[in-house]
Amino acid sequence: MFEHAACALLVTAADSLVLRANATACNWLGYSLDELVGKVRVRDLLPVGARLFFNTHCQPILQVQGSVAEIQVDVRNRLQERMPMLINIVRHREGDAIVDHWALFKASDRRAYERELLAARKAAEAAEAELKRLNAQLSAADRRKDEFLATLSHELRNPLAPMRSALDVFRLRAGQGGDGRLLQVFDRQLRHLTRLVDDLMEVSRITQGRMQLRRAPVELSALVRSAAQDMAETMKAARHSLRLFIEEGPIMVDGDATRLAQVVINLLTNAAKYTPDGGLIELHLGCRPGMAEIRVRDNGIGIPAPALDTVFEMFSQLEPALERAKGGLGIGLALVRGIVELHGGSIRAESAGQHQGSTFVVSLPLSAGAVCPAEAAPDHAVPSPVRVMVVDDNQDAAETLAMALELVACEVVVAHSGAQALALVGVADPALLLLDIGLPDMNGYELARRLRQLPGGASRILIATTGWGQQKDRERAFDAGFDHHLTKPIDFELIKPLLSKAGAG
Amino acid sequence: MSSVQIRNNVRISGSGSATMVFAHGFGCDQTMWRFLAPAYEGRFRTIAFDLVGSGGSDLGAYRRDKYDSLHGHADDLLEIVDEFATGPVVFVGHSVSTMIGMLAMIKAPHKFSAQIMVGPSPCYIDDGDYTVGFSREDIDELLETMEANYLGWSSNLAPAIMGVPDRPELRTELTNSFCRNDPEIAKHFARVTFLSDHRKDVPLSTVPALILQCSDDMVAPLPVGDFLHRQLPASTLHIIENVGHCPHMSAPTESSRAIDSFLAGALR
To answer: Among A13, A192, A243, B179, which is most exposed with the fewest C-beta within 10 angstroms?
Structure first.
């Protein structure tokens, strides 16, 4: 029954000398039964390496345990061909003698499969080792780069200080002449250079973990407003409109006020830089549970989708950015992210794509125990831009008032005479007008009357601004059709509710 | 339990004024001495242990850098002797452990009185005049065969499948713990051993030695025993009629007789 079994069956002595064999064994091994029994030792059919393995690892177990299973070795047939086999052996005592019962199964497919598995594993291990090596190399290179930048920025600072001093001396000596103009150029460029080096130094410090924060309670709405104020000149130079949407405070975070202001200024500077002149920039400050959120949005050149993540990395200015005159090293955003993350916050960039503007969103954790202030009362918020016209022949007065109004998200048009006001009112279509009474070409009361007669004039809010505050001046203003009367210098808080009304109306 | 005892699974038995230390060879652990060691418990304090990485030793203590040569195991042996041995020490090593013992004895000959080398070989690869070993290809094939077999051996379930028909007394003991060596460690150990060459250390060993050779052992064949006997000072060669590499298991009586007559001479 077992002669033609699907496996080779052998009975051997303890030294593997064949005592009995089935037909399958004879066929597979290529020997007749006579040639096998009492003449061939199975261990001699194993190649040397396999025989060594068998002797050192299998025999001991067979001796103590009485069995071994699933030994995978090549067995050589009579023609010295190798046949991959799977071998099980059970040891029996027959009287005084030890007898081993062998079963051998063909295992070529299994062997091939296992070889593939092993090869795949080796390849994976090699790949992993290579990956580790490359990562180590990258880390080392990255560290070297950071160290280089730190050293570089440090060294670059040294010549800048004496250059600064020398330049200041020259300027004092040169006065206003031709040389003076050249020195102005020199001065601007030196300041620019110094700023670049300072930025480089800052970002080096952050990447090397050496930036120290001076933490204290910081009220964000005041900080953000003040940063916007600092940017007023820059915005004006590029004719950008900067609108603020700032929730009423206190919005408290635990942080370094100087660094946080640096963040806001940096984002606003970028917005101004990467938006064509006459653009629209918004600065929002809001509050969610546990987090304060600062958003800077512009309608400038935008950011293509693949760059949204990398834009915070050093030296990753978008190509092609604006012309070289706008310059910079591409460090600003890396610095901003570094500072924000040191505060435990995060920053992300959003953009619908090229030429479709960008929004940068900074999230900062509120101070422990701080909560979002209640929503600001509606009549002190200015949700939608109110169109305002300021009419005053005093240019400085008109400009500063216009700037203040823009900071509360008004669209402002300025006129310096009655005639100009009348000419512009149709196009500008202001909801609210602040008219100075003492205009050069007509008095303000006359202007008001005329404005009322123009299309849309009845619904506009007219506010008289005068230097005189007595009762009769007020009555005269109301008679002329003004809705309100304010004395100069104007208390801005008094205008705000009027703006809300104009916005709502 | 001391850290050394845990690390090497040290078992102490017997009693006597001298100590006998048993160090196992390949592919297994101190259970290989179960047929020979008990004969000495009446006369000696017997210490059996597992090499780190084998048997019940602390596998976590296996460090490739330490055990990249047999010296790592030799140092462990010296620590075991220092901590647990009393009186004169007789070292009994099998196969690879014969070299481990020899290295230990070269470092500290005063700690040992005699060494019993069962199936020793100082070098497994032929090299120039040394032709009693194997070819490099054969050794590579051995290591590849180990690779192919250890895929399944990490949980050798042979007893569970095959039973232990003629050894019922062994069945329960062996089912879970016998020869369950970690495959990666076993491969590393085999590589270290079969590629090592301690021929130049042999003449430095001065402790009296008994070379117990099997008559039909392909791992440590007779010519190797001859070579060793010629090179090893103070050595005695004894050949046991035995097929295979483990006379202490398949011919324990002859083995202990040879050991006893040697000790009677050596320890006088």
So the answer is: A192
